[in-house]
Amino acid sequence: MRENNCFLWRSCGRKAGTQTGTGIEKSKAVVCHVIVFCVLLLLLWGMLIVSSLIPNESLRENMEKSALTYREKDAFSFENGRKWNGISDNYADTILLNISWNMGNGNPLFSSLDTWYYDGEELGESVGLYLSVTEEGVQPNVDYSRYWHGSAVFIRLLHLVTDVEGIKLIGLLAALLPALLTLGILAKYGHVDLAAAFLLSMGAVQIWNIRLSLEYQPAFIICFLLCPFYLWAERKRESLLTYLSVAGGVTIAFFDFLTTETVTIVFPLILVTAVRAAEGRLGSLKRNVRSFVLCGFGWIGAYAGTFTVKWAAVSLATGNNKFLAALSSAEERFGGSLQATGTDNPVLRIPMAVAANLTVLFGGEERVEPVRIIMGILFIFLIMGSVLYLFYQKESNKDGIKLLLMQGMVVFLRYMVLNNHSYMHEFFTYRALISPVMAGLAGGILSVKSCPRFSALNVSEWRKK
């Protein structure tokens, strides 16, 4: 009896020790993720402060050229006939340049937080930018401190050597170069088909049109910069994926103003899923959903935390509660009536938001074109259906296909949740559809491709690579 009791005591002790060890490891992991969040955010904020130290006089000549660029342009100008995928958001760009200019006034610590611009009053934002740069004594009159406006780091720095047109070109190259690197990595590991899907996805959302506006670029620069790191991390160690997700959440919240933020988490994870499934080492659906959810929580926590830090910091710096204004703006992004329809009915508002983005994807010239959407979807089903009919493999990785579809659906969920914003700004939010397009193409590739068996031999082979 005593021996049995001793055995039970030792067994319970081992189980308790295991649980305690697991708890400590989880706590350490949480702390490490928080450290990554804090260090990265402080680094980015430090860059913003340093850029604010650049004297405005050093930027004035090129800033004047930039301001003159918008002199004859509408707030939202069509650059490709009447297609909505070719709209240039000059309104957002003039505000961003205005904010960037005003960051050079006053204490850099405070000006990097309490961000304002001069709206030109009845003359408009483009004139407001020109007067801010050329006229002494023009004071900013609109508070826009709910965002970090991290792009000002590079706008101020690059205005030392070029104007806004040069910066747009540099931004386009900054997005395309890491994308090319990712294509090379996929090809190196024998996934030329996935590399082709990557290229088709970029073409589907007219990636070249991010040159039209400064505000279109940060999300894709960050996304494509993260892709090679995700492909490296998924082979190195699973836990690194959540750290990258935290880094992505911080960075996109710092640089972006709510354009296509989901691409920084969904697109890299789609690549990871597709590569693992193609190599026969994806594992169970349950395990991968858990990993996907953890990465999502890491990204969301970092994204929300970055905004919270901004609102708290600017509230302390100014003595005014900035949370109320920020949350009021956020509420409008979620709800509000659709100006084109005048409806507050969510039953209509939610599908209209999705329909508007699909319309732009298919080259629409109106805000919503139901016939164009139907024809576009039918064309896709016809092509995909024909390919699957001819080449479908019963041994395809069904769990991988299911996971890809789940990941792609996140973008549509975003459109439905932030329905007012997604509807009104469809001309740039539609580019987030690069993720479901990539998911669909990767799923098609997996459907016509026999999946290698998951075995110790497979694992050793890809580790050697």
Summarize the structure.
The chain has 465 residues and is an all-alpha fold. 70% of the residues lie in helices and 2% in strands.
How is this structure best described in words?
With 465 residues, the protein is mainly α. The radius of gyration is 25 Å and the shape is globular. The chain has helices spanning 2-52, 56-69, 90-102, 108-111, 125-134, 152-158, 164-188, 192-204, 218-236, 240-255, 263-278, 285-318, 323-334, 346-361, 370-391, 398-417, 419-424, 426-429, 434-447, 456-464, and strands at 76-78, 87-89, 116-117, 142-143. The strands form two sheets. The chain has a two-stranded antiparallel ribbon.
Q: Main traits of this protein?
A:
single chain, 465 residues, mainly alpha, 20 helices, disordered N terminus, disordered C terminus
Write the layout of secondary structure elements.
Layout (H helix, E strand, L loop, with lengths): L1 H51 L3 H14 L6 E3 L8 E3 H13 L5 H4 L4 E2 L7 H10 L7 E2 L8 H7 L5 H25 L3 H13 L13 H19 L3 H16 L7 H16 L6 H34 L4 H12 L11 H16 L8 H22 L6 H20 L1 H6 L1 H4 L4 H14 L8 H9 L1
Antiparallel strand pairs: 1-2, 3-4
Helix pairs in contact: 1-6, 1-10, 2-5, 3-5, 3-6, 7-8, 7-9, 8-19, 9-10, 9-11, 10-12, 11-16, 11-19, 12-16, 14-16, 16-19
SS-based structural class?
mainly alpha
H and E order: HHEEHHEHEHHHHHHHHHHHHHHH
The termini sit apart by 56 Å
Q: Compute the number of helices.
A: 20
Beta-strand proportion: under 5%
Helix share of residues? 55-70%
- Largest sheet, spatial ordering of strands: 1-2
Uncertain ranges: 1-17, 453-465
**Backbone shape:** globular
